[in-house]
Structures are given as structure tokens and as C-alpha cells.
């Protein structure tokens, strides 16, 4: 389905990707990711206001947990959906599901109803994200893959401008529901772009006669893994919380064991072995996303401990995503030894930034507003930049290391692994925050304790990613 009429250089430029027909195709692929990312920042920004209105502080992290669990299911179904409906039909179906979930969230009168809406949103959003990565291989030549991956990641930069603004303005006006309603016309506009730009070529078959099977057992085990960890966080008993984590990790391990022997696999060959290059890359992706899920509590900490308005807290939190986008876009032109250095430095920067947040978020409330913003904003941006500077090179390695005939599976697995890391991170974040006193004793004392424990414990994930990154760049050289 490539639309290029002349061969591209091995290191294609941004102009090659963004001009002419390629530019419109890039918009069709990345618009869905931008919509998904804007939604994430909207919810992060308005959730403190939602809790004040309809209650449910104990279920705060479940808004992310259920959203991401549903996204894992959507990502797993994306390959079958793509085969059945073609690129255009699959993207339109995902957009319709996302819009339905947004409407449910907007009409929620209780936390339970909101969680249902977030689950439906996640199903559509996860499918959109997986399709964006999978279609890179379909619509672009290999020379454009690295730029296209960076552009997909860069859509989170768009979200830093639109998401906190939409969420913060609606929340401050006392109309948080309209933050969700605003997603519907955006979904419609994206659907129109998809309908025009992803039309099948004349004479091309829209549907495949051979539909790929869906690894329901593995997906069910991964979903159960996350939900069991999250369920443990609802108990005040430490032993019950530990049991939830142990049981959840056991189900995750079982999913890997089943996938290795299954006829219908969720992950490509070698993806479940840490000793393999592909397995190490996937593990780094998951660990980095675990560390980034601390973001879901940042607006709450900033509002409770520092007195920020929802709009200001949303924009300061968005520094994480801005750092990720900037790092990803700036590093995408690097290759060889330079790319290897970025892969090693990125996780270390994220680790140090999270540790810095453990110091400044609870302790800088008495400083002036400018100094507080600087001390909190810099490590937030650093945490995201640490992920971003290595992200294009990690994902490009996945595309290049994919076993023959398993390129589509490897592409979809990027989103699956990313979402599983986010889901486990959100579930454990809820457990750590609640155990550290977020709701009991609550208030400033509880938020201060939760912030310290959350950032320190979650710094362990990118620290492990640092070790893996050093190993793969030392033993394998550069694939980018």
C-alpha cells in the first residue's frame, strides 16, 4: 500500500514523510493516537474534580487500570479487526468505540458508571494505538519507519497543548463532563480523514479470507493479572495487598508460559525471553511505562500539596509528555553509536528524575510559586525525556528484529507490552498510594507520604531498564 513513486534514501527526512500523500496518510495514522493522548491528559486533569463531585477516591487509580486493561484487549483484537475490515474499516470501528466510551464518561453519575465508560474508551483507544503502529509497515516504506514511529510518539506533544487546557478549563468552570463531550466532534473529524485517506486501492480486497486467530487465553491472563493486583489495593490489610501482587505476577508469568507453547501467539518468537534481543527490548518498554504511570497522581499531589488550580496542575503534569515528545522527535535522526548512547542514557535520566520528584513534590510547598514550578517541572520533563530519547530506537529495533512473517504481530505487541506496563504500573500505584495514606489519613499528610513512597518505589523500574539497555547496546551493537 506504499504510495511513494521514487526510491527513498536509507535515512529518510521529515520532508519525505510529511509532504504530499505521505503527509495525509501520516495524519490518518497519527490522529487516532493524538485523540487517545488528549483523552489521557483530559482525564488526568479533571479526575480530582470528578472525585470531588461523584466521590470514589479509593477507586482513583482504577480509572487508569480499567482503561489500560481494556486497551490491552483492544490491541490484541486489532490484528483480527484489521484483517476483517481493512485499514479504513478497522480505524472507523475503533473511533466509534472510543466515542461511545467518551459519551458514557460524560454522563456518569457515579464512579462505577465512569469506570464502565473508561473501559469502553480504553477498548477503542487501545485498538487505535495498535493500528497506528501496525499500519506504519503497511503504508510506508522501511526508510520512513523510524520517522513515522517518532511522529506517532510525538502526538503526545499535541496532547500536552490540548488535553490539560480542555480538562483544566472545564474543571475550573465546574463542567468536567464537557471535557468528555468535547472528544466527540474531534472523533468525527478524525473519522472523516480516515474515510478519505485510507480508502482501499481499486481492485484491492477489503477483507482477508484467512482471519488471524486471537490469543484469548493469554489476553485473559494478562487482564486478570492486572485486575488482581488492583484488587489488592482496595484492602487495608498488608497481607491481602501482597497476595494480590503475588497472584497478579503469577498470572502474568502464566501468560508468558502459555504464549511460548501456544499455536496462536500474542507475542512474536523470542519476545518472552530476556536473553534474546527482542525480549530485552520489550522488557525495557514495559519497565519504562511502569515508571511513567506515576503521572496519574501528580495533578492530585499538586492541587492538594501546592494549591494549584486544575488547569495549572494539568499543564505542569503534561511536562512529562512534553519531555517524551521532544526527546523522541529530537533523537529520531540519530543512528549507530549515538542511538546506542541514547538508549543507555534515557532510562537513567528517568530514574534520577523520579527520585528528584520524591524530594521536591512533598517538600517544596513553602517556596515561592516560580521556584515551585521550576523544581517540579524540570524533573517531570526529565522523566518523560528519558523515555523519549530512546523510544524511536527501541521501537525501530522491534520492527527490525521481528522474525520473518511475524512483522504484524511484533508491531501489535509494541502496544500490548506498553499497555501492560501501564496497567501494572497503575494497579501498583494505587496499592502504594493507598497503603502510604492517600485516603487514610488523607489530606496533605496522606498526599505527602504517598508522593514519597510512590516516586521512590517506581524509580526501580527504569533503573532495571537501565541495566537491560546497557546489556543490549553492548552485546548487539546498533540496529538503528
Question: Could you characterize the architecture of this molecule?
Answer:
The protein is an all-alpha fold and 480 residues long. The chain has one domain: MFS general substrate transporter like domains (Growth Hormone, Chain: A), CATH 1.20.1250.20. It is built from 19 helices and no strands.
Shape: globular
Superfamily (CATH H level) name: MFS general substrate transporter like domains
The structure class reads: mainly alpha
CATH topology descriptor: Growth Hormone, Chain: A
Strand count, sense and closure of the main sheet? none
Classify the oligomer: single chain
Instruction: Give the total of domains.
Output: 1
Give helix % range.
Answer: over 70%
Distance between the termini: 24 Å
Annotation, overall tally of beta strands? 0
Which architecture name does CATH use? Up-down Bundle
Relative strand content: under 5%
- Low-confidence residue ranges: 1-7, 205-209
Question: Order of helices and strands, N to C?
Answer: HHHHHHHHHHHHHHHHHHH
Averaged pLDDT, please? 84
Computed Rg: 21 Å
What would a concise description of this structure say?
This protein is an all-alpha fold and 480 residues long.
Amino acid at each position: 500500500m506504499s504510495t511513494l513513486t521514487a526510491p527513498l534514501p536509507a535515512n529518510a527526512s521529515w520532508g519525505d514523510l510529511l509532504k504530499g500523500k505521505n503527509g495525509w496518510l501520516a495524519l490518518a495514522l497519527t490522529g487516532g493516537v493524538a485523540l487517545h493522548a488528549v483523552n489521557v491528559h483530559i482525564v488526568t486533569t479533571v479526575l480530582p474534580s470528578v472525585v470531588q463531585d461523584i466521590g470514589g477516591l479509593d477507586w482513583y487509580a482504577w480509572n487508569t487500570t480499567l482503561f489500560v486493561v481494556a486497551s490491552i484487549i483492544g490491541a490484541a483484537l486489532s490484528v483480527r479487526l484489521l484483517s476483517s475490515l481493512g485499514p479504513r474499516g478497522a480505524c472507523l470501528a475503533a473511533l466509534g468505540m472510543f466515542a461511545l466510551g467518551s459519551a458514557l464518561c460524560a454522563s456518569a453519575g457515579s464512579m462505577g458508571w465512569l469506570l464502565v465508560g473508561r473501559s469502553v474508551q480504553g477498548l477503542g483507544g487501545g485498538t487505535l494505538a495498535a493500528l497506528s503502529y501496525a499500519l506504519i509497515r503497511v503504508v510506508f516504506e522501511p526508510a520512513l519507519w523510524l520517522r513515522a514511529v517518532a511522529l506517532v510518539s510525538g502526538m503526545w506533544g499535541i496532547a500536552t497543548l490540548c488535553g490539560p487546557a480542555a480538562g483544566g478549563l472545564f474543571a475550573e468552570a465546574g463542567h468536567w463532563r464537557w471535557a468528555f463531550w468535547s472528544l466527540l466532534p474531534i472523533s468525527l473529524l478524525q473519522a472523516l480523514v480516515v474515510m478519505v485517506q485510507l480508502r482501499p486501492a481499486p481492485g484491492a480486497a477489503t477483507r482477508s479470507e484467512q482471519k488471524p486467530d486471537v490469543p484469548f487465553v493469554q489476553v485473559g491472563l494478562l487482564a486478570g493479572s492486572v485486575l488482581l493486583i488492583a484488587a489488592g489495593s482496595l484492602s487495608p490489610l498488608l497481607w491481602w495487598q501482597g497476595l494480590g501482587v503475588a497472584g497478579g505476577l503469577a498470572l502474568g508469568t502464566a501468560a508468558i508460559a502459555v504464549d511460548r507453547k501456544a499455536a496462536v501467539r500474542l507475542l512474536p518468537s523470542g519476545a518472552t525471553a530476556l536473553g534474546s534481543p527482542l525480549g530485552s527490548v520489550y522488557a525495557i518498554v514495559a519497565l519504562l511505562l511502569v515508571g511513567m504511570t506515576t503521572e496519574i497522581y501528580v495533578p492530585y499531589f499538586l492541587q492538594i500539596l501546592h494549591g494549584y488550580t486544575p488547569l495549572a496542575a494539568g499543564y505542569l503534569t503534561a511536562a512529562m509528555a512534553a519531555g517524551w515528545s521532544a526527546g523522541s522527535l529530537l533523537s529520531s535522526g540519530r543512528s549507530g553509536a549515538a542511538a546506542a548512547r541514547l538508549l543507555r542514557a534515557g532510562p537513567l535520566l528517568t530514574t534520577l528524575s523520579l527520585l528528584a520528584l520524591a524530594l521536591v513534590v512533598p517538600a517544596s510547598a513553602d517556596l515561592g510559586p516560580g521556584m515551585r514550578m521550576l523544581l517540579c517541572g524540570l524533573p517531570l520533563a526529565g522523566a518523560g525525556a528519558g523515555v523519549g530519547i530512546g523510544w524511536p530506537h527501541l521501537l525501530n529495533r522491534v520492527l527490525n528484529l521481528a522474525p520473518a512473517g511475524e512483522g504484524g504481530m511484533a508491531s501489535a505487541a509494541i502496544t500490548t507490552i506498553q499497555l501492560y506496563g501501564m496497567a501494572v504500573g497503575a494497579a501498583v500505584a494505587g496499592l502504594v498510594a493507598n497503603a502510604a495514606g492517600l485516603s487514610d489519613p488523607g489530606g496533605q499528610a496522606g498526599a505527602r507520604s504517598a508522593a514519597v513512597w510512590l516516586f521512590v518505589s517506581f524509580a526501580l523500574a527504569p533503573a532495571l531498564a537501565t541495566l537491560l539497555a546497557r546489556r543490549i547496546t553492548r552485546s548487539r551493537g546498533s540496529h538503528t
